[in-house]
Amino acid sequence: MAMPPSSSSADEAFLRARCATTKNATTCYKALLPFASSFNGSQVRISFAATAVAFDQLRGFLAELRQLQAAGGTGTGRPRDQALSGCVVVMVDGGDGEEEALSCLHWLESPGSNKERASAFFWARQHLSTAGSCSEGCIRNFVEAGNPTFSSNVGKKKKIVAMATTVDQYVDIALYLVVGIKL
């Protein structure tokens, strides 16, 4: 795998400044540093990269959920297995907005009327918000599925909640960066 071009100190300073506007600047900076040389001071480009990373995290989480489902579920009983199935459904819904969100962000780099740009901005935020709501819903449903110290498979539940929390964190970072775009 080819290494991305190294970034300049100006690229890194821009990245650091934009990441400082998020709730988790350190994670933002580490996740986006490999792409810093492509931002060229563009709030849209950094938002595009953060959105792509967030949806990549979501796809990885969904793959883990499906793998767990294929392996027989959580091993902790019907309520948690139903919560697992629910997580799969909501995460599929959350991932449905990826192409649209990225397309809207791409549109913001193109010339267009203020009305078109405002619409693209709105829909990019909307698709990210939906993805965030889905990961939060997955966490909530799984936690509410029963006693958090259930059975010998408590590790599976903790892993699911931790992975959903990670997805939510990356979606939040992308959302903060998108909201910070100046039209």
UniProtKB/TrEMBL annotation:
Species name for this entry? Eragrostis curvula
**Gene3D superfamilies of this UniProt entry?**
Invertase/pectin methylesterase inhibitor family protein
What is this protein's record name? Pectinesterase inhibitor domain-containing protein
Q: Which InterPro entries match?
A: Invertase/methylesterase_inhib (IPR035513), Pectinesterase_inhib_dom (IPR006501)
Question: What's a Pfam family in this record?
Answer: PMEI
Domain Pectinesterase inhibitor intervals: 10-177
Give the molecular function GO annotations.
enzyme inhibitor activity
